Each structure stands twice: as C-alpha cells, then as structure tokens.
Amino acid sequence: MTMHFANVNAMRLAYRVQGAGPPLVLLMGYRLNSAAWPTQFIEALAKQFTVITLDNRGTGQSEKPLAGYALANMARDVFELLIQLEITSTYLFGYSMGGAIAQEFVRQFPERVKGLVLCATMCGGPQATYAKQSVVRVMRDLDGLSPDEAARRIWKVTYAPTYLANNRELAESQMRREIADPTPLHAADLQFQAFAEFDASSALADIRCPTMLLTGDIDELISPQNSKMMVKRIRNAELIVLSGRGHRVIWEATEECTSIISRFFLRIENSCAKEADLHVNDRNAPTLLEALWPALEMYAQWPLIAAETAIDSLSIARQSILATGSAPFGDGKPILVLPQDLGSYLNASMLTAWLKATGYRPVIAHHADLATAKRFSQLITNVTRHLRRKTILITGIAGLTPAIDGAKRHPERISDLVVLGSPGSIDVPSDVRLHYISSGWTPMLTMTTLPQLLRNIPIQLLDQ
C-alpha cells in the first residue's frame, strides 16, 4: 500500500488506503504504527471495505511532537483526516489504545460512526480493571533496551503463552515489521500517559451506533473484565470472548477475528440495528483523600514495610487516583532527587517511589554521587543519556548549592530545578527554569502539588 500524508491538527499524519466498499478506519494501539496490522487481516477486510489505516501521532511516519497526545486530540486527528478524504461516515475498529481513541471519536463525532468494534480495550474510570503492577512494569521499564529487546520483553504480557511457544518465528517476523520504524521513547511515554488518564466511562451510555466488544479471555494487559463491564453500559452492544487468546488476539486468531468483524459490519450495512434501552447504575467515584489514604497509612508505617511492598501500595493508590481522574499521570521525564532537607533518605525514597508510580523516572542522588563535581556530573549524564531527555532536579533548601552547581555545569542536560521550600534570590542559569513550592516537604504535598507541577513542565530532548 502506498503511504500518503495529510496535514491535520497542525501536524503531518501518515495514512494508507486499500480496497473498495464502505469505509472502515482501523486505529492501532500503544506504541505501534499501521505497519503492525497483520497483512492477512488488512487484505481480507479490503475485499469488502475501503480500509484506512494511519500512523498515530508519534509513531511510524507521522510527526512525533512533544505535546498533543491526549486521546481526545488524537481522535480529532482522525476526524480531520476523514474530512480531507471527504468521508462523512465510517465503520470504526479500535485495538487496545486505538479502542480508546475510537471511544473518544464516537463521543465527539457520533454522527460519523456507522458501526464500532472495540477490541482488547477499556474505558478507564472508577469501574475499569487495571493491569497488575508487575504487568505495567514490563510495559514501562524499557530504558536502555534496543527496539527488538523491548519488543521481546513486551511479548510476555501481550501474547498468549501457548501461541508464543508454538509461533515464535511468526512473532519474530511480526516484530521485525513493527520495529522497522520504531516509536521514540518520548512519544511512547506520552501515549502511555494519555491512555492512563483516559476515562470515557460516563460516555458509554451515550453511544448509539451498533457496537461490538471483542477480547481474549487470558488478556493480562487489558483484562476481559473491561469488555464485560462495557457491554453492559453500551446499549444493544454485543460481546465476543475468544478462548485461549491474549492481548494480541488479532494476531493470534487473525482469520477468526476477520470473519467476526466483517460479518458484524456487513450486517449493519445491510440492515438497521435494533436499539434497546439500558439502565446503568453509576458508582460514585471515591474522593481524592479516599484514594490517597492507603498510601498515607503506608507512610506512617514505612519503617515496618519492605521497599517493594511500599511501592506496590503506592501503585494501588495511583490506580485509584487514575480511576477518579483526581491526579495527573506522568510523561516519563527523568527526575533527579537530591535528598538534602527532605527529612531523610526515607522521605526521598518515598518521594521517588511515588513519582515512579505516577509515571516518571526518578533517581536518588546519594551522598557518594554528590561527593565531587565529577561524580555528580557523571550521574547527571547517566540519568539523561539513555532517555535522550533533559532531567529535572528536585531538592530542598539544603540541597540548593549542589543543585545549582550541577545546573550551571550542565544546562544542556537539566531543564528545570524544583525547590521544596522558599529559595529566596538565587542565581540559576538562564537555560534552566526555577520552580518552588513554598510550603516545603510534606507527604500530602508530594502526592498532590508536585505531580501537577511536573505535568506542566514540557519535555525537552537532548540536543543531537
């Protein structure tokens, strides 16, 4: 298929068109571009539909900006593309994160969707079932890995174990197609952030087009419980659960999925779907304090809790906050914490655990790292080198001197300095932005004010 380009939403979007018949837009998931779709899947659908595939912003041959990855914005990318293609209505298939983009598209432009299939996806919100922290770590802890190493690591939670054991060569071949044009880490982080904060749960009841939920019954990444919950909230929706299939259900059962999707859309094309009212009882979302309470209790008992258990407790609280929309999720920026004046290394450890749980990549600078300017410079270089992004320094008043010295020596690697306390008048390099929180360090401050401040700091890539 020939790649085409369109200027949409102030960026260049790559797309392909194949086949003839009613238009069908396929929306790909996290990190992947349109080359990842199984060839057999596209070719079979193109016999009955005009299939439109696109590289989501940040992937493939589309632009990879440093902002604009909110799923509502990515849905508008699709809308503007359809406007340019003079397509007034379409069938829509969304896989994983692409299913979330599809939900956003239907919410914003309901009159443009004739039928909808949501595959291996979720709606977010308080009733969503999120992945275990061990699974999230597999997807996120990819620092320093080559594209093929990262892909093989992610296999562990995306393919069904039996399929991977019996089809290793197919998985390798598929992986080679996917990493031919790899997604840069900053774009992957921003996509992950957008998906983590996504919540369309309140809009499900407003979906009026015929809808199908498709999932594998052993999906570890996005539990099939999400599809089972969503089908109850979308009026007249259908649910198909494929036995023994994982998150990559389309790749594991390509022929079966193609048949299911084609039959569903062609049935809509040939007849009008019946509608039925569905009454949904909404559960009240917990307050921010209720969501944070497990983490605050954990902090009070910190000396008695092992570090891994503490991080998992913070992760549970983070999941609760994601579900309520009460706190922002991070974009993977590297953060260097100087523990002076944070009370103790214990407090610094809690701070880094919380920052990691909320989507950042924090590192503590220990006394040995600050012993000499040379060692501190090496730490700054190590923190930023693999991510190819500038870091943020976080310190209390007592850590200002080494923080400023580091910022003066490495403005090319440090973008911002955050001070927990009132710094007064200090001399900071012009290339480094200064932020301070006058009330200093408290546990509640760490879990509320600081993530919002970090969210407002833009990503800065290292100069090539």
SSE map:
Layout: E1 4-8, E2 11-18, E3 23-27, H1 39-46, E4 50-54, H2 71-84, E5 90-95, H3 97-108, E6 113-119, H4 133-140, H5 147-158, H6 161-166, H7 168-179, H8 185-197, E7 211-216, H9 224-233, E8 238-242, H10 249-252, H11 254-270, H12 288-300, H13 307-324, E9 334-338, H14 345-357, E10 361-364, H15 373-385, E11 391-396, H16 400-409, E12 414-420, E13 433-437, H17 443-455
Parallel strand pairs: 3-4, 3-5, 5-6, 6-7, 7-8, 9-10, 9-11, 11-12, 12-13
Antiparallel strand pairs: 1-2, 2-4
Q: How would you sum up this structure, described in words?
A:
By secondary structure, this protein is an alpha/beta fold. Helices cover 42% and strands 16% of the residues. The protein has 17 helices and 13 strands. It has helices spanning 39-46, 71-84, 97-108, 133-140, 147-158, 161-166, 168-179, 185-197, 224-233, 249-252, 254-270, 288-300, 307-324, 345-357, 373-385, 400-409, 443-455; strands spanning 4-8, 11-18, 23-27, 50-54, 90-95, 113-119, 211-216, 238-242, 334-338, 361-364, 391-396, 414-420, 433-437. Strands 1-2-4-3-5-6-7-8 form an eight-stranded mixed β-sheet, with helices on both faces. Strands 10-9-11-12-13 form a five-stranded parallel β-sheet, with helices on both faces. Strand 5, helix 3 and strand 6 form a beta-alpha-beta unit. Helix 1 (39-46) packs parallel to helix 11, helix 12 (288-300) runs antiparallel to helix 13 (307-324) and helix 15 crosses helix 16 (400-409). The model is unreliable at 272-326 (pLDDT under 50).
